Queue: 2 jobs
Job 1
Amino acid sequence: MDTSRRLFLQAGAAVGGGLMLGFGVRTDAAATAVTLTDYVVVAADGSVTVMAKNPEIGQGAKTMLPMLIAEEMDLPWSSVRIETAASDPKRYGPQFAGGSMTTTMNWLPMRQVGAAARWMLIAAAAQKTGAPHDAFATADGQVIHTPSGKRFTYGALAADAAKISPPKLDDLPLKDPKAFTLIGQSKAGYDSPKIVRGEPIFGIDMTLPGMVYAVYVKSPVYGARLISCDLTAVKAARGVRDAFILKGTDWHGLQDGIAVIADSWWYAQTAREQLKPVWDEAAGAAHDSLAYLEQAKQLVKGRGEVKLSRGDADGALAGAAKTLSAFYEVPFLAHVPMEPQNCTARVTADGVEIWAPTQNPNSGGELVARTLGIAPEKVVVHMRRSGGGFGRRLENDYMAEAAAIAQKAGAPVKLVWSREDDIAYDYFRPGCYHQLRAGIDGDGRLSVYDCHSVTFARDGKVAQGASIEGNAFAPLVTPNFRLTQSLIPSTVPTGYLRAPTSNAIAFVHESFWDEIAHAAGQDPVAFRLAQLDAHAGDKADYNPGRMRRVLAAVAERANWGQAALPKGEGMGVATYFSHRGYFAEIAHVRVADDGQWRVVKVWAVGDVGSHIINPTGAYNQVEGSIMDGIGSMEASITFEKGRAVQTNFQDIPMMRMPKAPQIDAHFLTSDSPPTGLGEPALPPILPAVANAIFAATGIRIRKLPLLPEEIAAGRRVA
Amino acid sequence: MLTLNINGKPRQLDVLEDMPLLWALRDVLDLKGTKFGCGVAQCGACTVHVDGEATRACVTPVGTVLDAKITTIEGVAASPQGKALQAAWLDLDVMQCGYCQAGQIMTAAALLARTPKPDDTAIDDAMEGNLCRCATYKRIRAAIKTASGQSADDRREA
């Protein structure tokens, strides 16, 4: 076999640039498996290893992506072995877990990858028998010569197939969806048997021979610089091998700090108490959540920058029969994935190897190269299973730290952050503030929607994850619309939390929409349906028809408006379009006299296109998104003197078993190609719950976190 | 040199008695199924059994469990409850990221050992200390019921 041959094909990726597919033969005297392509390795026993190109963070990519390949190859699922691909964008295209993009970007290309492997196996059978290509079919991991019924296993054909020139991906016929046997069938998570046995598959479980453990101590104040730190005491602490200072290079990566290296992580973590670093914290020390709120209240009185405008908002407000005005407040949030940030790094003369839980392995490798001042091709990143991501691991700062520490330590290093580190050094979901106004005309129709949003800035621009644009519904259906933006400069690092932007502004806009419906004297479902109907023919990114269907369906499933509820209970509705997915959700909430609230049941209907590829994973994502969203309504991160006040889980309420609601989730399909489910079910649940609390109590929720004492106080006032 | 009884076997380790059991298991004995989540007994990811009781290993110094029988996720299949829970977790495809699930299974196994057929309230009470950031609570509840031979339905008043 010709081991030097590597054939590359340009495949038309649906989104995000071309997919480069490597085809070729890897020979290994000891190996009985044949590498058919970069994605498919066929063993002599017929088992087929399929590569999952993107990180697994709990969103199910490791199981779902190979399903697409196996479907087109007609592989029996029981014969499929799955491996996580190397981080290598030249072979696999962009590899990341973000934006609910894995399905959107790979629905077509991964099926093409499977169809190409199938084509090569058929070509090998054709060559072997002299029969024409179209005389063959495939089923159950075998090529079948249709006229004779003679069967060839993939294992028997693989060595010959690997020598065959691969087809052009764009020309390959794909399966008729009616013939799908895997897509649409529930397949349990591929790694799950290892998880229930406690096998070491997560990033934090990595070990290497001669490995030492590290903590990295930074200032809790953002933007601080290290002036000095005496290391004598820490170096003498038990179990400690070394300690040293590193200078920061990048707010996305290595920042000033002190590394402590020890024989066990706990020794390093204990020894860090001995450090008495001297920081220059002047840059961040003035930053404070209360100051931010005061700035926001001043800013919304001014003019701001108009981001989107239609019609004449001021004129319509002046001419409205009835106007509403409300100020909404949303806090900063932390990501807190269950697995704390960690990374194992080995630096040798040949280069750097990284093992990490990451959502963004390609950019992580580039960051490590920049940090160490070496060529990017000298960095190899191994993707380990991530114990959650939620957007936090789009940043690879812990990777830069581990690499810099390992370079200086002269041994492989596993860096593990404490939970306190994880919260202190997050790239937080930024808070935001919104002054909303609406006008209703004499016929009870909404005539104007005006929103002045205040968000955060870094280096004079909207900070990462701090956009307040993207609410598609209001500008579409309102004749006079205006969105204005003002910025507060901040030193706090910000980033992307699951359903970024939408997770904050859906609460704001869909709660205010409920206020408008009530002010107009209309049922909140009927009010939305009427507006969607009025714009049913509009052609935009936002398809009113798809939203109308999911809203009507969820109202029916929840028996909306059909039953009188006991005192203290109510139902609320919201819709939201994000990450290409349409979701309508209804929450049934029970509020006690002391303001304690619980969501007892949620109904959700979503439309994410033509197929639900792996239903068990899809429902799990919807259920988890809804519970995550409800849990987030009680949480906040606040800042005093430039640092986060909250330090561990005792300060951050999250969804736990007793408050977990019952959930009725349902999908409608539509003609569009399938899109992702990591995020779009989350945004509408927050306003649905807030609107349900209004229905239950008459108290309008305009501020998160949603504190029981504030509901109770509101009741006393009411 | 200390000796711990882990999953039915004596294991020797050379650490000080105040090292938390979590780090002795993970870094010294290479039993990595027990997970680090918070270090302050707030999340339950590190749950093991100490003489059958669900215990947070992150705040349990090894010196306090030298005479105890310790079971970790790697050994939970030896009990009928543990085996049934592992099977139910797989049948119902509970996991998303999976990081907390060893702790969830350990807490659930201790619950079933003392309450063979827990109702929803008993499940709420036992499981409240185990955080699942992916919020797979619906399936965790159903899996505990399935493993204990009950209908998987959520019977809480809705």
Note: Chain A has 19 helices and 30 strands.
Job 2
Amino acid sequence: MTFAALPRRALPLLAAAAALVGGVGWMAFAKDSPRQPAPDGSYGFLVTGVVPAIYKGTEKGDCPDGRAHSTLEAYLATQTPAERIRLQKPENALELEKKYKVDFVTDDLGHDICRQPEAFDRAPARIAGGRTSFGMDLDGGDSANTCAHGEFQSPTGETGVDNQFYRVVGCTNWWRGAVGGPPGEAGEGWRMRWATGDSRAVVVLRGVDDWRNDDHVEFVLATSKDPAPVGADGKVIAGGSLRMTDNPRWRNSGTGRIRDGVLVTNPMEVAIYMRMGTDSEIRIRHARFRLKILPNGELDGMVAGYQKPREALAKMLAGSVISTDIQLECAALYKAAHVYADGDRDPQTGKCTTLSTAFEFFAKPAYVFEHDGTLIATRQSRTVRTASQ
Amino acid sequence: MTPMGWRVASRGLAGAILIGLLGCTTTQQTPASQAAKPPALASTAAGDAAASRPVVGLRRLTESQYRNTIADIFGDDIQVRGRFEQIQRPDQGLVAVGASGSAISAAGFEQYEQMGRGVAAQVLDPAHRTLFLPCAPRDPARADADCARAFFQKIGRYVFRRPLSANELTFYVQVAERATEPTGDFHTGLSLGLSAMLSSPRFLYRMERAEAGARELDAWSKASRLSYLLWNTTPDEALLDASGRGDLDTPQGLAREVDRLLASPRLENGLRAFFTDFMLLDRTQSVAKDPVVYPRFDQLVVKDLSEQTLRTLADLLLVQERPYPEVFTAQRTFLTRRLGVIYDVPVSSPTGWEAYEFDAGDDRAGLLGQAGFLALYSHEGRSSPTLRGKAIREVLLCQPVPPPPGNVDFSGFNDSGSVVLKTARERLNRHNTDPVCAGCHRITDPLGLPLERFDSTGAFRNNENGAKIDVSGTYEGQALEGASGMGLRLSKSRSPTDCVSRRLAEYATGREQEHGLPTAWVAALQERFAADGFRYRALLRDIATSPEFGAAPALPGLKTAAMGTSQGVRQ
């Protein structure tokens, strides 16, 4: 209200007076919470990471044929020894740069080697030929719906592990990191997307009677409408409140069981929002979750399943910057992804259309609401506060 | 207007203010350069009378009062940009009392002058001026005394919270005229005049006046007291009119205005201002915690701490009209998502506030379970039963605790990671084997230890360093358990209600019991507060309609309380 200009500014006063006369409560904030108790046995979690699981053992053991070529190496390999020597002389640096950063990654029709890798006829990238990888035995040795492929052993000794995505990218610098150095930047990029709330998802476990052993639980993984709360240390914090998306595409349901404190789901189809290069979701087919339920209520484990080559390589197919700056030879990886595909065999062609893969999966306890604000899951391991404890 | 012209005008304005501050009196002298000209300004009899009364009290506007006042006079789209010099809080007292003796330093005044200039420029810019100007100048490039007079007469009544005297009006019209000459712009001239008005002590301070020898403040001063007490802002049109009619000098007229103000939604602003001052809630904005120990506590949480308490109090005391003692037991509060993380409860709204009711038996009940209180009275990396107990004593019960001696050895207590003395209680017990320390800790710790299930951020815990936390305590000889037990005991005690009524009386008058606030009046208020069922609105009404509220302070050595006669008060 402004007294000095009353005619125009008297309106709020009049409105307030009218509200009082009409008996309308005037405290705008006095909105009541829905406060429905969560259904018994429903617990919520905030997903804090879904990151491709890339094993890094010894260089010789994991990549016996050497690292996958960078774009520059791939280009030089197409040249005669004499021409290679000429192009690598300092005075020819600009010429070399143009040839491998422009001519080599685009074709005459304007195709981009990362956006349209199928337009380039390149040899498959060098693969990870070791014996060890993270992952799960997805096919159980059943060859009816799969194609012949090598299997890994997990670092903990599990045999029959299927992870052809690792086989394709496991010897690229971007994923594996420098020889003797830390893991590659790719995984860190994935982690950052979760840490900053760029990717957001929640889990709801329904019907949990016993956190050690339960024969039947419902498992829901859904994109969250709300960003993850981040603490003063820059990390996602537990105990926040988040709403599930109302987009049915990004709400995934399945069933599972808890054995000795480890939740294992049956295969389920998974799609959750994540901005990923050319794609805006992570899609995992026939996904199985194997998650350890930690004493602090967090979930820590893995999800494994199958992805189409384009889905699996989505982040790498964003554009030629990947080939020139990150030095990934997209067409060679794309070719390898098709060659080593091991799942969802097309009965018509007899060729497999998907790659087995595995992701690390982390989640922290959280309160989960339906998109309309109805509380559907309380958080695990909440401390009970009573005066008489 | 050339830039140089602007600078000239600015200097002229600064000069005008200086004249106002240092030289002019309530019987304003016409500047020498203008002495030959006839004033030709209409005298306002009420303004002359008001301005001639001796000043018996000065209370500097707080930052929130300044901002509210500017918004109410000119509109909330007028921005106030600047830094406010802090009003010192007296030891264990209210800022409102500090405001009664608060000077403004040269640097502080510079800020006020800058803010006033910024406000005036906005008010008279092309987008706003038509709202405030009752006339159009004959020539916008030249001075127009009649139009300027009409403007200042109208606006001055709001700015000074009373009508202007003829001399004051002449002064500001002349400032505007003199500023118009070099700038060649009538509105710039007015703007500089208005800026001088906003830099005047008559605006920056609530000048309380009384007739010489009178026991009561004049009606304009009473109106300001009422408005700043109940709405934390300047008197509105109706209240100024009531003052002009003399209504506030009769019990019936005063009661009518008090009831009108009490019935307004704006009463919440007054409640917020009082409890911010009483409970030191402004200090929550500077609470910081070690991010390694408490990663959940960040600036988003800090921002919400005082707001949660104020929303809870406004809801409890004004909307639900519950008795004040329920402040210590109420289960209903308001939360944001970020506070929900600290409280470990679900909050459905992604933005904003929502009501939340803790379960019966939850240790969170009442103010003592709120993160604002718990975090404010803790250290950065650990809770503090002593700070919390001291705050309960001093802030909520008005019972001063002596300061610690200078040679205390805190080393044993500060080792909060001790594997031997795992809980704060154990460490305090060791510390209190020193009788020098034990004396004060006996006063504070039994009140703070029951809150130990809340860590330094206000988050709940059952254990400290792996040891179960003992939350037993005592208050007024009664054993109790936990924060809710402490709250329950406080709710049954007279000390908190006597404290809040005493503080509200101090807040209303700007005086402490030690400095002239009638003890008998405070005692009577406390009794009537109890008789009214400890209803906050009833206490406010009692204070605002009491003769003591509108009484002129008896200033020692001055028969007529003659601060600010024509000899004393400066523009």
Note: Chain A has twelve helices and 13 strands.
